[in-house]
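Morning run. Coffee first, then this:
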Amino acid sequence: MEKDQKPNLIGSVWKMSAENLKREPLIFLPFLISGSVKLLFLLFIFLAPMDPFSIFLGPPIRRLWGERFLHYPFNFLLTHQLFHPTQIIIYIILDGFLTGIAVWLIFQAFGNKKVIFKDGLKKAFSKYLTLTAIVLIIFFISELIFRGERYALAKFLLKTKIVQPLIKQGILDEVMLIINFLFVILAETLLAFAIPAAIIENKRLFRAIRRSFSILKTLFFQTFVLVLVPTILYLPVSLLKNNLPQLMEKTFPEITLVVLISGILIAMCIDCLVTSSVTVLFLVKKGIERESIP
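And here it is:
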């Protein structure tokens, strides 16, 4: 595909995705479920140091983090610390499954078929292990990137001319976070079509991954843009999360909940946009392949 056609394809995919969502708002339901589950867990974590939950949860909190984390304002720091691993667990156990449901609903809407949530539920449940394995791979790649960056920084880069000015200006953590953010987007791009391949083409794990790589040979630029543009909107939230203790000192402790809740709501919309556009691109590519068969 020629370079001057790439933006046209991206625009067309976004347009078709928006039309799908407008015509079939049920597509948004899996992401709404994911966001609601995260909000409920956030609420539970926030209430953990308070009565009556503190009767059961107070002793382990006191033992693991100390007495002060049971009281204001340190309970907000505890909420931030505990919610991060909770999000990871929800992402691995639930989000791949819900994304699979959304992909099936988008597939049905794209073909002008009746969109039935129960059908998407059955389809995603039948591929649960594959979907979970895909999100696990994305998570492990992201973790390897993060740990690799930290290792390279500690062993090779800390005293270099590039890094030293960043340390003096106090922005090294922010720069590293942005670099990690972009690498994670790249990892998500590499496996962007794995879930659509598993759900729509009924492929098993390694065949789904191979299918994703195959499509990326001709559509890497478009896919990267479709993932990057919505996801970059989450970067300010990531930067705020990274500096929550300092932010609490400069503002008020309750800012923690504002940032975490905003992050959940923004991520919910971003996931919907990325999944919708990537799935539509997958279906467009599938249609082109079908037309090219003599």
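Residues 255-292 form the longest helix (38 residues). Good start to the day.
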